[in-house]
Write a structure and sequence with these properties.
This protein is an alpha+beta fold. Helices cover 40% and strands 13% of the residues. The chain has 17 helices and 18 strands. It has a four-stranded mixed β-sheet with strand order 7-10-6-11. The chain has a three-stranded antiparallel β-sheet with strand order 3-14-4. It has a three-stranded antiparallel β-sheet with strand order 13-5-15, with no helix packed on it. A hairpin with a 2-residue loop joins strand 16 and strand 17 (387-388).
Length: 495
Amino acid sequence: MMRNKWIQKFVLLAMVGLLLAGCTSGPGKNDVKTPMTVKVMYYSEDSFNQTYGDLFSIQNENIEIELVNTQKMYNDGGIEDYEKALQDFIDQEQPDVLMLDMGTYSKMASEGKLTELDSLIERDKYNIESIYPALIDILKEKGEGKLYGLVPTFHRNVIFYNADLFAEHGIEPPHDGMTWQDIIDTARRFPTDGDEDARVYGFGRDSYGGMTLDNMASTIASPQGLKVVNPDTLKVTVNTDAWKQVFKLAQDALASDAFYNPKEDSFRGGTMEEYYKSQLFLTGRMAMTINSAYYLRELKEIKNRLPDYKPFQVGIAAGPVDPANPEISRDVYLGNIFAIRANSPNADAAWELIKFINGEQYAKIKSRSMNDGLLSRMGMTKEYGGINLDAFYKLKPQIDDSASSVEDKIPAEFYSQYYSIYSREIGLVESKEKSVDEALKTIEEEAQVALDQALKDKAAKDSSKAGTPESTDSNEEHLSTDGDAVISVESGASN
């Protein structure tokens, strides 16, 4: 074990040494000379050290990292109010560096609980010009015009396509800004005949199971930002033209033989070779699929894992998009936003850690693996495994961070009731006992009754706790959320 640790440290030192020359994200060594301890809030000590801490410590011997694990919040069981539990955790542990999601970042920034970074960036002449500008814009927007955090990586899906199959069948390959209608129409141009175990499919998802009307509709609705509940009126809004179009598109897609939709799991266990053979896009039998940057690793690794692998040309295109807003993408996720707690006594050392995690040296090292998503630092690598990465950075990200606040406003009882109503009605559509229009009308009517009652019950419960008269006007509360599943309160947008 000790020998392995020394080997790992040697490798890390070698990697950093090779990359020190030519990096311009700041001084090679930090300006903190006095030994200091920085407390970092994160969900796993091992994960943090492997991803960030070990590399940072090699160059910053005067700064010791003490990790405070957010899993401690769950030591006493479940959490009813996550926001309160998190704030109590921060107040008790007093971490210097916070790892936040977008909703918490926005809330803490507005409450003055984070340290503004703009002055530190200017003081140290820290280069943020090569950071994906759209991400800086989002972080500033959520910080009411100021920058309170930086994010080293982000996640986004794109359209992967087999350029050789498109050329073979004389079909124009996918382009940036395709809608779901475009994808479905393009998939249908591929032949649907041939042996089921050998034929080509126009589109599919390499996964362990098939696509249902439920998850296909959710996938199509996501780029449009369709809402199940209108956040301003607290009205269930699924019986709309937009939602009807989504479900009808989903029906068309699933009815098409051009879509790969196995009746059972395509892989039920076995060797790695058997797994890869069950993934049709990876093995050249699927023209298009949608996936994240992590899929680039799969495409690279399969070349060495399948003895009879036949290589093909892979392309990627930005999308799918909302036809009404083709320049933006809602399919973007910022996970680890690093910020400094306001009034931290170790702000300078905390800033050194954040600078490193978001710097050019770190990005150059991480560009070799693609383990943690797409790099926010642009230009560190133009391709991965021979595939150009430009499409990941083309569409402007649009993020709704309101999901975290809605959880306290809509009682959990509503979610379970909604899902029960929704599942029943969509099941009737799939069995052809109801039309989409009929099902959505019933879902909206019954779910509204359930939501009104759940809000009324919650108001009574809150009133009882506070010892104040109950408010009967449930519309005084305003909801806002986001997500990518139809069963969530908001999977995107309404009328």
